[in-house]
Specification:
The protein has 509 residues and is mostly helical. The chain contains 16 helices and no strands. The chain is globular, with a radius of gyration of 22 Å. It starts with a helix and ends in a 13-residue tail after the last helix.
């Protein structure tokens, strides 16, 4: 953390991940304006969000494995460039179908860059600094994620919703320049065979089919042949994905990564909590505009306290988890997140910011800042270090699938879908929003219980690699890296990277 190389790496990875984070939050602010301009109902708004999440969720594992195979820096920078080009396509899309198509392509770029940012941190920083680095990554990245809606709201109110897609283009240029000049390359040289293209295709088709069925069923009807066909294709493709991953020589989701029970538990926790978060990010800014009548700028600025709390608390939360273990942070954090969501459920049409919105946002932000860095550090520490790209990809895939499920299912369960493409009235939206927030709060509470029961405090002690199989649960699995081996590989990478970055490959054995 104190060396120049570490600071450059942190800058590149923070800005790179911020590109995807900004787009994920700013588009939600633009949905009401976009709906007025292009005639989008609730289902169409869901597709604007889920088309991006769909390819991101389905391909992010492939992005992580491609980084491990061909070089984490290389794949990361390709993803950043792809993302910038498709952002331009989103900005100029003349119709809703073309916008959705461009958003689908944008998700491919995000799938390449997102796992790379965390994998680069995991393979570059010293074991004792990784939790702090991930905390700084979470804190600094959250600035862009939360300032994005504010800046996007200003652009929407003064110019057009199309400008929100242009915010990330200058950042992408900076990331490419810094990445080429200062970020060391690393890869896993033990990987053999061809990339798992069949696994990627079956995962995309599976998610697409199921997502289409969930989103379109309320409007078309469960008995609609297209809905039933999509559901069937999704289920068959999902089953095929499992079969492919068990049989292909170089799977993008190797079963061995789940040999670590702590890795599995932390990802299940991630799935539950991020599903709850996805509902808030999708619905809150719309609620403030549709029900409370706020401008896009005001709605985008409402969550600024979350930015401040993430900036101030995330790195400390990472250090707290490293020092005392992640179990308590990962229990307390989701409890606070759920409490904030329960407060959001009470926000009505006549409420003001200071009396209703601010308290809910602050409680939510405290919980979020206590959760993100510890759960991410736990996931990465519980996996074999040479699989850091895949581990990061799994973690990101889980969080994106969770958000995809939230955007697809919560409006349906809360009674906000099924309007045949029409707009939803303020009263209907208010009632549905309240129900959705209470459901999300229940999910967050379930995450807290899961963390308390399953997460072990010693998972971060080794600084990388599976640790839960030691001690009372038996010896470490064959091939698991010992703490000393991980430190030696990190030392080799850092010592040689400033002179000849490609020699950083020795970090992988």
């Amino acid at each position: 953390m104190a060396e120049p190389t570490g600071r450059w790496v942190l800058l590149a990875t923070v800005l790179g991940s911020s590109i995807a984070m900004i787009t994920g939050t700013v588009v939600n602010v633009a949905l009401p304006a976009l709906a007025d301009d292009l005639g989008a109902g609730v289902a169409e708004r869901q597709w604007v969000v889920t088309s991006y999440l769909l390819t991101l969720s389905a391909l992010i594992l492939l992005g992580g494995s491609l980084g491990d195979r061909y070089g984490r820096r290389r794949v990361f920078l390709v993803g950043v460039g792809w993302f910038a080009v498709t952002s331009l396509l989103c900005a100029v899309a003349p119709t809703l179908p073309l916008l959705i198509a461009a958003r689908t392509c944008q998700g491919i770029g995000a799938a390449l860059l997102t796992p790379g940012s965390l994998a680069i941190i995991q393979s570059t920083f010293a074991p004792e600094d990784r939790a702090r680095a991930i905390g700084a990554w979470s804190a600094l990245g959250s600035i862009g994620a939360a300032l994005g809606p504010l800046l996007g709201g200003v652009l929407i109110d003064w110019l057009s919703w199309r400008w929100v897609f242009l915010i990330t283009v200058p950042l992408a240029v900076v990331v490419v320049v810094v990445g080429v000049r200062h970020v060391p390359e690393s890869r896993d040289r033990t990987i053999t065979g061809s990339p798992d293209v069949l696994g990627a295709l079956t995962s995309v088709v599976g998610l697409a089919g199921l997502t289409f069925a969930v989103i379109e069923a309320p409007g078309r009807g469960v008995g609609d042949p297209l809905v039933q066909a999509a559901a069937l294709v999704g289920l068959v493709a999902s089953a095929a994905f499992v079969v492919v991953e068990r049989r292909v020589r170089s799977p993008m989701l190797p079963a061995s990564i789940f040999a670590s029970r702590q890795f599995t538990y932390a990802n299940v926790l991630c799935l539950i909590v991020y599903a709850a978060l996805g509902g808030v990010f999708f619905l809150l800014v719309q609620h403030l505009q549709i029900v409370l009548g706020w401008s896009a700028t005001a709605a985008g600025a409402a969550a600024l306290p979350v930015t401040v709390l993430m900036l101030v608390r995330s790195e400390r939360a990472g250090a707290w988890a490293q020092r005392s273990g992640p179990r308590v942070p990962l229990t307390v954090g989701p409890v606070a997140i759920g409490a904030g969501m329960a407060l959001m459920a009470t926000i009505g049409a006549d409420d003001g910011y200071l009396t209703a919105v601010l308290p809910a946002v602050v409680v939510f932000g405290l919980g979020l800042s206590a959760t993100v860095a510890p759960v991410t550090a736990t996931v990465l520490a519980a996996a074999d270090e040479r699989l850091s790209g895949i581990a990061s990809g799994v973690n990101n895939a889980v969080s994106r699938v969770a958000q995809l499920l939230a955007v697809a299912l919560l409006p349906v369960l809360a009674g906000l879908s099924g309007t045949a493409g029409g707009q939803v009235g303020a009263a209907t939206f208010a009632a549905g929003f309240s129900r959705a927030m209470l459901m999300a709060a229940a999910l967050a509470g379930a995450g807290a219980v899961l963390a308390w029961v399953t997460i072990r405090d010693d998972v971060l002690e080794a600084g990388g690699g599976p640790v839960e199989d030691a001690g009372a649960d038996g010896p470490a699995a064959p091939g698991d890296a010992a703490p000393g081996d991980a430190a030696a590989r990190w030392h080799c990478a850092v010592e040689s990277a400033p002179l000849t970055p490609r020699r950083g490959d020795c970090a992988d054995g």
